[in-house]
TrEMBL record:
Its main location: membrane. Pfam families: VKOR. It comes from Rubidibacter lacunae KORDI 51-2. This is Putative membrane protein. PANTHER family: VITAMIN K EPOXIDE REDUCTASE DOMAIN-CONTAINING PROTEIN (PTHR34573:SF1), VKC DOMAIN-CONTAINING PROTEIN (PTHR34573). GO terms for molecular function: oxidoreductase activity; quinone binding. Signal peptide: none annotated.
Length: 324
C-alpha cells in the first residue's frame, strides 16, 4: 500500500513567496528614501508632525553610514532577501530536483542570517528613535516590521532539522551585527583636519521651535561671507528640526549666522514665515535663494562663495564630516 505524501503546512508552502513580497516592498521603500536622500528632497508623510519626525530622523547622523544614505544599504539588503527567497523558485523542481534542493538549503541559511541581521539592526534603530531622537518615523518603523516579519517567516517557513544550528547561527549573526552597529555609530568627537575643524552632526532631539544651539565660533571669512550674502540679497530657508540646517549654521558659526537672512519654514518655529517659503518654492531644507535661483541642500562656504560671487577672505574654519 502506498503511503500518502505528507501535507505541508500552508506557511511552509507560501513562506518563500511571502518573504519575497515583503522584501520587494522593503526595496521599494528604501529606494524611495535613497533617492530622496541623494537629491536632498524631503520625504512625504501623512501628517505635518509625522513629516517633521521623518525628516528629522532621515537627515540625522544615524541616517548615514560611511557617508552614504543608510537606506541604500537597506535597499541592498532587501534585494538580497528577495533574491534568496525567490531565486530557487525559478528552478523547475521536477526537472532539476537536486539543484533545487541544494539552492533551497543554502538560501534558507542565507535568509536566516539576513533576517536576523536586519532585525537586530532595526531593533537598535528603534532604541535610538525612542531614547535619543525621541520621535516617530513611520518609514523606520515600517522597515523594522518588515524585518521582523521576514524573520518569523524564515523560522516557521521550513522544517529545520537542526534547531541547534538555527540558534547558533542566530546568536553569532546577531552578535556580529550588534557589535558592528555599535562600532559604526560610536560617537565621533570634533576633530581637526589640517587647519580646519570637522563639525559634528546632532544626535539629540532639537529644542521644540528653536532647534539646536550653535556652538561654533565664527572667523573673519565666515563673517565676511555672511555679510556678502546678505548684501546681495541671499536668503536661507530652513526648519528648526532639520539637522542639515543646523550643520549649515555650524559652518558659519554663531556670530556670522546672525547676519544671514534666515527664513524659518516650519511651525511652530520662531518667527515662522511659511508663506514666504511656499512662494519661493522651497521643497527641502536647507535651501538657499541667490540671485533669484533656488539651491536646495546644504552648501559649503566655498560653494556659497562661488554661487554669490564672493571674493573676500577664504580661510574658512569648518568642514562637513566626510568632506576634505
Amino acid at each position: 500500500m502506498s503511503r500518502r505524501r505528507k501535507q505541508l503546512p500552508w506557511i511552509q508552502i507560501w513562506s518563500r513567496p511571502l518573504i519575497g513580497a515583503i522584501a520587494i516592498l522593503g526595496a521599494i521603500l528604501t529606494a524611495y528614501l535613497t533617492v530622496s536622500a541623494l537629491s536632498g528632497a524631503s520625504v512625504a508623510c501623512t501628517a505635518e508632525a509625522a513629516g517633521s519626525g521623518c525628516n528629522n530622523v532621515l537627515s540625522s547622523s544615524y541616517a548615514k553610514v560611511f557617508g552614504l544614505p543608510l537606506s541604500l544599504f537597506g535597499l541592498l539588503a532587501y534585494l538580497s532577501m528577495a533574491t534568496f527567497s525567490l531565486g530557487p523558485l525559478a528552478v523547475d523542481r521536477e526537472q532539476q530536483r537536486s539543484l533545487r534542493n541544494k539552492l533551497e538549503n543554502w538560501t534558507w541559511l542565507l535568509l536566516l542570517a539576513g533576517a536576523t541581521s536586519m532585525t537586530v539592526f532595526s531593533g537598535y534603530l528603534m532604541y535610538v528613535l525612542a531614547t535619543e531622537l525621541q520621535t516617530a518615523c513611520p518609514y523606520c518603523i515600517g522597515s523594522a516590521a518588515f524585518a521582523v516579519s521576514m524573520l518569523i517567516l524564515v523560522l516557521l517557513g521550513r522544517e529545520w532539522e537542526d534547531s541547534g544550528q538555527v540558534i547558533f547561527t542566530g546568536i553569532v549573526v546577531g552578535l556580529v551585527t550588534l557589535v558592528g552597529t555599535l562600532g559604526v555609530y560610536s560617537e565621533k568627537p570634533v576633530v581637526a583636519q589640517g587647519d580646519r575643524i570637522v563639525i559634528t552632526q546632532p544626535t539629540s532631539p532639537p529644542t521644540p521651535g528653536k532647534g539646536w544651539q550653535i556652538d561654533t565660533q565664527s572667523g573673519e571669512a565666515e563673517i565676511a561671507l555672511a555679510e556678502h550674502l546678505t548684501a546681495v540679497g541671499a536668503k536661507k530657508y530652513g526648519a528648526f528640526w532639520c539637522p542639515h540646517c543646523h550643520e549649515q549654521k555650524q559652518l558659519f558659526g554663531k556670530e556670522a549666522f546672525q547676519k544671514i537672512d534666515y527664513i524659518e519654514c516650519a511651525d511652530p518655529g520662531t518667527n515662522v514665515q511659511s508663506p514666504a517659503c511656499k512662494t519661493a518654492g522651497v521643497r527641502s531644507y536647507p535651501s538657499w535663494e541667490i540671485d533669484g535661483e533656488l539651491y536646495p541642500g546644504l552648501q559649503t562656504p566655498e560653494e556659497l562663495a562661488a554661487l554669490s560671487g564672493y571674493e573676500g577672505p577664504s580661510n574658512f574654519k569648518y568642514l562637513l564630516p566626510g568632506r576634505s
